[in-house]
Design brief:
178 residues, mainly alpha, 2 domains, DNA-binding, homotetramer
Chain lengths: 178, 178, 178, 178
DNA sequence: TATGAATGAGTATTCATTCAT
DNA sequence: TATGAATGAATACTCATTCAT
């Protein structure tokens, strides 16, 4: 939702660049070169910098988009299935986790981060109301576990079965216990 | 434990460099320059490269030492307190988590990684025998949770209380449940 | 005085751009970006390049206009007051001096330069006839002194009083001496 | 006179680089690329930046050396012949004038600039004592005239004879007048 | 004719690594 | 063996200029 609507071609390039950047940083980590992003997007380097004046801006834009997507996804999940979904995404896209965790996320993207927190809070409250999750836990530790698991999934190369068993441990920890 | 024993001064330099590198990478992340490591170690850059022909080698050496330390620490802990210990270390030293998680850890340091796995396996078996941990869980998910929490601690800036609540969720998930 | 008369709006843009360029280069020096000129003129970058196909052309056009203005001013001055006027302008507008001095001025703007020379020659002749200036000096050194003082004023940041004392030395040098 | 004496090879390179830089900037102006300086000096680009961490530092170093040379030269001249000498140098080396005039000279090289001012002051005082220069003029205007003439010589492409006639005007202006 | 997005060569600077002293 | 100067590839970013809309 850009403040000034872009020309059609500019908008198309913006998207292309974001897509390419997401892929490149997912594959090669955040030290990948902007030149590589341009190459993969099929545009000249200047075009990348016209859209994102700084590499940091480019990274921030990716984060923003990813977080917004997660927030949108939250609507179709309960807390546990949202965990599964996010962790699966993280395993696939390096960036999800890297960026979820970016130290300065709150600094650079306070709104986007807050939205995600809100979405998870809703899921948590619902889950607690329905008795699926113990009322002992609060939002911060739930967010922290989500982030941790993403990071783990990212670096760990877990297979499907293992991922499941890991999440089961955490879910058990979140359920009400006598 | 070098195969050919080093001259005393060379050995001293090796240690100095490792110490400096640990500190530098902990502070500035793995993109910190080798030059900075040399400066902090009080040796010339050439000396660093004589001992560790590659930056990767230097990073690997740090990992190896850190893992060895963790293995040694394992002896004085039960599974839960070991979790607490490792996570606390990770929060303090960027490197612990970064390196625990390094994708190519198994590839580059297969032995060191195996040793840590063995140590955790011992703790796990003991914990299961004593009934502290459910016999449902197996080593891989325990390792994965440990790694995930380290990563989370690293990037999350958790305070003491939050860290405690997070671990409680996981511990509950690991305990036997009716 | 374009050879083909411009449409009214095009002419207006041309002037706007020249005004903006003069201001921008005066403030930021000749390394200021053409984009900044466009911004300040309130036109798109393409418009600047349509009117002045090259940055050099834009600079040349400014020079031309400035020189023409100086020539016009000459009519209202004697040699000494003209010196004062030009030097004061130079102190105010970086460009006057920079451009007066541009190495390729004669090459790129032979006519405009010749006109200025003519104007100064008239002033000089008049001054010599009236006995205000020694008949020993000739046009080239007078022009050279004028250019030098402009350059000096430009870079020197002279205050009013100093500027006066500097000019006094030169004027004394130009006056008839027993 | 570096604080820490350099290794012989490093010192040799430092000089080479300064020489090359002086030539390059003289020819192509201060926008010439550092790469060109390296090429002309016969060293790799990294070497230039090891010696002068910033392009500004390199320019400052040239200035410093040039100013020091001028100060040294002052000892062998009276005021008028010093003027001649400096102006002749400026005509030959773009840099002398450019740098003499550098807006931030006082900011970046206060000592070097002060030394030159001192040297000229000595020459001026002597000239005034001997009656060669009027006691009306003071140091600031003398410095300003020197700088202006350098700038003029730099950009003007004056031939020998013209240079002489220009200086004669200024010298006449400086002499005692009835 | 005006717009402003796209191009791409060019520039300062960094840093792992090599090698002469 | 240690030193630290030299190397040079790599990288983020700029800006004059072109061209599709």
């Amino acid at each position: 939702m850009p403040e000034v609507p872009l020309r059609a071609d500019a908008a198309r390039n913006r998207t292309r660049i974001l897509d390419a950047a997401e892929a490149v940083f997912a594959e090669l980590g955040p030290t990948a070169s902007t030149e590589e992003v341009a190459r993969r997007a099929g545009v000249a380097i200047g075009t990348v910098f016209r859209h994102f004046p700084t590499k940091k801006d480019l990274l921030a834009a990716i984060m923003k988009r990813l977080l917004a997507q997660l927030v949108a996804d939250a609507g179709e999940h309960d807390l546990f299935s949202f965990f599964r979904h996010v962790v699966a995404e993280a395993a696939a896209k390096k960036t999800v986790a890297d960026l979820l965790a970016a130290a300065d996320l709150d600094i650079r993207l306070p709104e986007a981060a807050a939205h995600l927190r809100d979405a998870v809070e809703t899921l948590l409250t619902t889950a607690q109301s329905s008795g699926a999750v113990t009322s002992d836990v609060r939002l911060p530790e739930v967010m922290a576990l989500l982030v941790s698991l993403c990071q783990g999934a990212l670096h760990g190369g877990w297979d499907q079965a293992l991922q499941s068993r890991i999440l089961d441990v955490v879910f058990t920890g979140l359920r009400p216990h006598s």
